[in-house]
Amino acid sequence: MNGVRARGDRPVLVTGAAGFIGSNLVLRLLRDGRDVIGVDDLSTGDLAHLAPALEDGSSFAFERLDVRDPQLAALVERHRPGVIHHLAAQVDVRRSVEDPLHDADVNVLGTIAVLEAARRCGVERVVYASSIGSYGEPAEAELPVDESFGAPALSPYGASKRVALDYLDTYAHLYGLASTALTLANVYGPHQTTAGEGGVVATFIGRMLAGEPCTIHGDGEQSRDLVFVEDVVEAFVAAAGDGAGKRYLIGTGRRTSVNQLFEVLAEATGYELEPSHGPARAGEIRHSSVDARAAARDLGWHPRTSLESGLAATLAWARTARSV
Ligand SMILES: NC(=O)c1ccc[n+]([C@@H]2O[C@H](COP(=O)([O-])OP(=O)(O)OC[C@H]3O[C@@H](n4cnc5c(N)ncnc54)[C@H](O)[C@@H]3O)[C@@H](O)[C@H]2O)c1
Predict the structure, then answer these.
(1) Which residues are CB-neighbours of 132 under 8 A, at least 6 positions away?
(2) C-alpha to C-alpha distance for 70 and 101, rounded to whole angstroms
């Protein structure tokens, strides 16, 4: 980025820019003609996801930085973004159980660092990536859950993502910093790796394309609300302009069991091995789905991509990524 901006709008800063959702968001913002600054410490992210943005270079600047680094404030001061999408996080649930201090350090202190930089530099809106994993097990009759649902978190990851939400409210109260939180269901799509949340789609696709055995944990009847990354990115774009002070659930309201997912992907990839069944994962939620009517009402957001076409796009990307 060359100091002089081609467009009147202030730039947009994305933390976690080299990650799965963050990189899709960066590419979308650039397609919309925005100037974008990407921040990522590359702890799990991959610059390859940002290759088209880095090649062009005129509207995109990448800074390899930990959001907890004191240099973040100077970076925000230098670029003066109008909006910060805060997606950088420790997203590995099992790692959060093994090392809850590290998890809280990144997810709580990292979020506070972003909010501090935002309020000091007059950022107009922070959009925060929250997680349905922050909430415990809903009763089947409560599904799909809406924004009033709030069972205690089952993991330190859930707890840290949730604590960060309170800081959004505190910064709104103390400094008038406007923020919107998007509580995401299980996101899937291009650029997703096998680590982190919602990785079952990426794991099955990776194993099936490699002809390797797949393991289903438990009986496979556990279900998830699988939402396509492009739809999620659309919600971030919408939340940059609407919904200040609100929290929205983002998902399809539909439940797909792990067994169903396995069958659809096996069919699409021509995979013929039978899955093996391993022990159920301790602490895993049995069923999950979210009611996104509030996001539809206030943000005009709808999940537009069917599971079939989202999986086809994900598979096409995975095939290309394997052949590179
Ligand atoms: N993938 C999902 O299904 C899902 C569901 C709910 C919420 N979320 C949330 O969405 C956000 C993005 O998740 P994702 O799936 O893209 O994960 P991801 O791991 O692909 O992306 C996170 C990115 O943050 C970076 N990062 C981690 N710690 C950092 C730090 N201290 N400073 C700077 N960068 C750092 C990583 O390198 C990575 O690129 C996270 O906040 C996550 O909690 C994801």
Answers:
(1) 145, 183, 184, 185, 186, 225, 249, 251, 288, 290
(2) 19
Q: What end-to-end distance do the CA atoms of the chain give, in Å?
A: 28
CA torsion, ordered 48, 312, 239, 252, to nearest 10 deg: -140
Residue closest via CA to ligand 1's atom 32 equals 66
Residues marked as catalytic: 157
Residues in the chain with pLDDT < 70?
A: 1-8, 195-198, 324
Domain that holds residue 87: 12-190+229-253+287-304
In total, how many domains does the chain have?
Answer: 1
Query: Cβ distance 14 to 81 under 8 Å?
Result: no
* Pocket (CB within 6 angstroms of ligand 1): 15-16, 18-22, 40-45, 66-68, 87-91, 106, 110, 129, 131, 161, 184, 186-187, 196-198
The closest of 323, 48, 20, 45 to 187, measured between CA atoms, is 20
**Domain-located, residue 152:** yes
Burial of 255: CB neighbours in 10 Å, binned 0-12, 13-18, 19+: middle
Give residue 196's pLDDT.
52
Across-strand partners of 277? 216
Any bridge partners for residue 180, and if so which? Answer: 127
> Measured from the CA of 106, which atom of ligand 1 is nearest?
31
Q: Looking at residue 134, what is its pLDDT?
A: 84
pLDDT tens for residues 286-319?
Answer: 999 999 999 999 999 999 999 999 999 999 999 9
Q: Which CATH number covers residue 108?
A: 3.40.50.720
Q: Given this model, what pLDDT does residue 195 score? A: 61
pTM assigned to the model: 0.96
**21 and 233 in contact (C-beta within 8 Å)?**
yes
- Ligand 1 atom at minimum distance from 18 CA: 39
